[in-house]
Write a structure and sequence with these properties.
alpha/beta, 6 helices, 7 strands, 31% helix, globular, EC 3.6.1.9, dTTP/UTP pyrophosphatase, ITPase-like_fam
Length: 211
């Protein structure tokens, strides 16, 4: 039955889309969910990642329920939170914010939490939280200045993009690298499979491009 159900990605992130495409999953619709991402007072980083993933999927469900073409879709929502201890780092929108993040991350281990939510048209909701530890090498003033000048930090959780220039700062990753990029692939595929979505339907020899 669920083979006929379309998949909606409740995100405007090109990174999450590219990660899904990497494992052969092509969402039928992209529907960025606009929700308030402000942490609740006293909320832990892991609780925030879970709440936002569920919230994005739920917000997308409200929107598509008004659209006959999309109403019976599986919705995939996700959010990534970067934290030093219990301190939640922002999705940097200014050089000042990004600079503070880089200073906090320099030379230390931090945690990246990515929540994933699959919202079914019958009301069933499946979630998963993935925790990854990332260690930065110690950053010099020149490292920080050059990275801030690149602009890559803009809109990124914790003020950096591990898949970009900031990869040169990463000394160690313990856990899921794609989760730090924005979507844990193993856990996402497992959630979709448990929902009955055919995650390997594009794994045909003729459909997979040669390396």
């Amino acid at each position: 039955m669920t083979k006929e159900l379309p998949l909606v990605l409740a995100s405007g992130s090109p990174r999450r889309l590219a990660l899904l495409q990497q494992i052969g999953i092509e969402p039928d619709f992209l529907l960025p969910a606009d929700i308030d991402e402000t942490p609740v007072r006293g909320e832990s980083p892991r609780a925030l990642a879970q709440r936002l993933a569920r919230g994005k999927a739920a917000a997308a469900r409200v929107l598509i329920d008004r659209d006959e073409e999309k109403a019976h879709s599986i919705i995939l929502g996700s959010d990534t939170v970067v934290a030093v201890g219990r301190r939640i780092l922002p999705k940097a929108e200014s050089k000042e914010q990004a600079s503070v993040c880089l200073q906090l991350l320099s030379g230390r281990m931090h945690k990246v939490y990515t929540g994933v939510c699959v919202n079914m048209p019958d009301g069933v909701v499946r979630t998963k939280l993935v925790e990854t530890r990332v260690r930065f090498r110690r950053l010099s003033a020149n490292d920080t200045d050059k990275y801030l000048a690149s602009g890559e930090w803009r809109g990124k959780a914790g003020g950096y993009a591990i898949q970009g220039l900031a990869g040169a700062f990463i000394a160690r990753v313990i856990g899921s690298y794609p989760s730090v990029v924005g979507l844990p692939l193993l856990e996402t595929a497992n959630l979709l499979q448990s929902a009955g979505y055919p995650t390997q339907k594009a794994w045909d020899e003729d459909a997979v491009p040669a390396a």
